């Protein structure tokens, strides 16, 4: 088993902050980093977070398809007023 390091808490905290919806710019400021790429060293997406993100993307794509279909559907005489 790997030894515990104090920075392990920092990694966990950054990961949970991203999962809570804190944007990377704000998180960088909270961690005291001047560059976002440093945040990426600490925040690690969990499998659950990735699955939720994929679900959001699927919902977005579905909504876009529906909106496109509604915009491009031929109008019938009953829908024109």
UniProtKB/TrEMBL annotation:
GO process terms (BP): DNA integration; DNA recombination
GO molecular function, one term: DNA binding
Protein keywords: DNA recombination
SUPFAM superfamilies, alphabetized: DNA breaking-rejoining enzymes
Superkingdom of this protein's organism: Bacteria
This protein's record includes keyword Nucleus: no
Keyword presence, Metal-binding: no
Residue span(s) of domain Tyr recombinase: 1-55
Listed Gene3D superfamilies: Intergrase catalytic core
Protein name: Tyrosine-type recombinase/integrase
Organism whose genome encodes this protein: Tunturiibacter psychrotolerans
């Amino acid at each position: 088993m790997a030894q515990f390091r104090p920075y392990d808490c920092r990694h966990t905290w950054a990961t949970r902050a991203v999962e809570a919806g804190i944007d990377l710019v704000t998180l960088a400021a909270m961690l005291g980093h001047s560059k976002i790429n440093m945040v990426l060293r600490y925040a690690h997406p969990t499998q659950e977070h990735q699955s939720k993100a994929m679900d959001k993307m699927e919902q977005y794509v579905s909504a876009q398809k529906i909106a496109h279909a509604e915009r491009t559907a031929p109008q019938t005489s009953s829908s024109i007023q």
